[in-house]
């Protein structure tokens, strides 16, 4: 069943809903010091919080979708008990062309594409989705896939595209990559509407493309994230696809094939196509992975464990999957998620899977990134509230999961607040995995202003220990990263 078939009238697509209030764009690029602080900034919080998100520089070409806006990075640098805010647009090729023309040139997600083009060919890479730190630079990326833009971590000025290797030219690199801070390697995947439909790559600390492997899929797919362990990478092939008929007509229409399994490609980090092992699991769809790691089970068998936040699978009165409701939830940015785990047995080829938590509705999981690809105990997720209008999800609070005990602690300050994905920031000389802070933007709707909240990761229920008042509104956005002080200092020495 295609998303464009339900409901018959798409009156839940509100053309300007994502251009108002805290979703509305801003147009000033500023640097601000001596920011007002409620509470006291911890002296042992040193580093930089950076978040990506949309802020269209021009009036939309047609209908506007929240995902269409030009990427804008917002950073807050913490040092010595003080905070400095800076924001800059990501200077993409598309944004430069539109500035030269003085108007928007590309259609958005809701527009019909020019005849004879696939949607990916016609849309502008706005680089508004994720941001990672690698080899002394910030990498800004787009969820639909495209060129990766390199950004100076201190000025937020765009330095150029990550296309030093000819194999990367024109490749649709997805937003959700992974950095192994122990090896300094950057793992990514690319996907699109042309055979082989996916590629996998590894970039070393020197910026060289060390591994590049085609991953052949049965057809165009819509993977969103990936996972890594110390020795393996896990790539996703879920049964959510673009309707082939819709693609041929130059538009998007989601279909969920409930008779297809979810498939996961497990490949050695520097492996080749013939080393890929496919594991099949129940049909689901997931946006974001929390983490993955390798371990030995009670039977002495090697397993890869992957934890994430897939959509809850709605059921009808007959107990069967309600595909109509699932597609409506996905297509309107509805929020109905659960913590879930897959275990891929490398010795038997079997998969065990199941729900970790289906009580709290959480997404955007973050961890202490020193544990990326290694067994971790804690994740820090956004508590998802009920959307007030369609296409406007409500990020209502924070949740800390303890994977060892199964416990969860939630913090929700009440009506009027809208959170962002909040990375973990280790305190100076941290002594344990959760010895640090959770740092993230919060829209304070009661005071109509943006703030950065710093929460003690070991006492989430207490709420923020400090709130930094932003000098301008920070529009709602997507993904973020924390750059440690030692990483920034290494940049300056280099």
List the keywords:
globular; five-stranded antiparallel sheet; six-stranded antiparallel sheet; mainly beta; 494 residues; 39% strand
Can you describe this structure?
There is one protein chain. The chain has 494 residues and is mainly β. 7% of the residues lie in helices and 39% in strands. The chain has helices at 93-101, 119-122, 244-248, 323-331, 485-493; strands at residues 31-32, 37-39, 47-51, 72-79, 82-89, 130-134, 137-141, 149-151, 158-161, 178-180, 185-191, 198-203, 209-214, 227-228, 232-237, 240-242, 254-256, 262-268, 277-281, 286-296, 302-310, 339-345, 351-357, 362-366, 378-389, 392-402, 408-411, 417-419, 424-426, 436-444, 449-456, 464-469, 480-484. The strands form eight sheets. Strands 2, 28, 29, 30, 31 and 32 form a six-stranded antiparallel sheet that branches. Strand 20 and strand 21 form a beta hairpin. The radius of gyration is 21 Å and the shape is globular. Residues 1-15 have low confidence and may be disordered.
């Amino acid at each position: 069943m295609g998303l464009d078939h339900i409901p018959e009238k798409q009156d839940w697509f509100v053309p300007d809903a994502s251009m108002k209030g805290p979703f509305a764009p801003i147009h000033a690029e500023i640097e601000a010091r001596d920011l007002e602080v409620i509470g006291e900034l911890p002296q042992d919080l040193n580093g930089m919080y950076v978040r990506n998100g949309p802020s269209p520089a021009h009036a939309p070409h047609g209908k506007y979708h929240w995902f269409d806006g030009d990427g804008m990075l917002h950073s807050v640098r913490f040092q010595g008990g003080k905070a400095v805010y800076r924001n800059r647009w990501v200077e993409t090729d598309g944004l430069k062309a539109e500035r030269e023309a003085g108007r928007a040139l590309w259609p958005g997600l809701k527009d019909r594409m020019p005849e004879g083009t696939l949607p990916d060919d016609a849309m502008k890479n706005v680089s508004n989705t994720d941001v990672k730190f690698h080899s002394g630079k910030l990498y800004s990326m787009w969820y639909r896939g495209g060129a990766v833009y390199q950004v100076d971590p201190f000025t937020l000025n765009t330095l150029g595209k990550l296309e030093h290797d000819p194999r990367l030219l024109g490749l649709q690199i997805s937003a959700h990559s992974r950095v192994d801070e122990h090896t300094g390697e950057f793992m990514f995947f690319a996907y699109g509407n042309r055979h082989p439909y996916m590629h996998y790559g590894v970039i070393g600390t020197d910026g060289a493309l060390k591994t590049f492997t085609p991953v052949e899929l049965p057809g165009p797919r819509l993977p969103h994230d990936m996972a890594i362990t110390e020795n393996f990478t896990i790539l996703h092939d879920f049964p959510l696809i673009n309707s082939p008929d819709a693609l041929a007509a130059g538009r998007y229409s989601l279909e969920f094939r409930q008779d297809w399994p979810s498939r996961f490609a497990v490949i050695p980090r520097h492996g080749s196509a013939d080393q890929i092992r496919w594991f099949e699991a129940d049909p689901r769809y997931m946006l974001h992975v929390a983490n993955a790691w390798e371990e030995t089970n009670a039977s002495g068998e090697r397993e890869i464990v992957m934890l994430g936040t897939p959509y809850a699978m709605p059921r009808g009165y007959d107990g069967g999957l309600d595909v109509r409701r699932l597609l409506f939830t996905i297509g309107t940015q509805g929020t109905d998620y659960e913590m879930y785990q897959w275990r891929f047995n490398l010795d038997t080829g079997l998969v065990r899977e199941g729900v970790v938590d289906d009580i709290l509705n959480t997404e955007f999981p973050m961890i202490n990134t020193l544990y990326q690809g290694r067994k971790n105990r804690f994740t820090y997720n956004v508590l998802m509230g009920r959307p007030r209008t369609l296409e406007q999800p409500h990020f209502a609070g924070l949740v800390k999961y303890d994977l060892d005990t199964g416990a969860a602690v939630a913090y929700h300050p009440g009506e009027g607040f809208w959170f962002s994905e909040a990375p973990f920031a280790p305190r100076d000389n941290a002594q344990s995995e959760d010895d640090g802070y959770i740092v993230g933007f919060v829209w304070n709707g009661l005071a109509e202003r943006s703030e950065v909240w710093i929460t003690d990761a070991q006492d989430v229920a207490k709420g923020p220990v400090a709130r930094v008042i932003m000098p301008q509104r920070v529009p709602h956005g997507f993904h973020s990263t924390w750059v440690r002080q030692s990483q920034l200092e290494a940049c300056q020495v280099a």
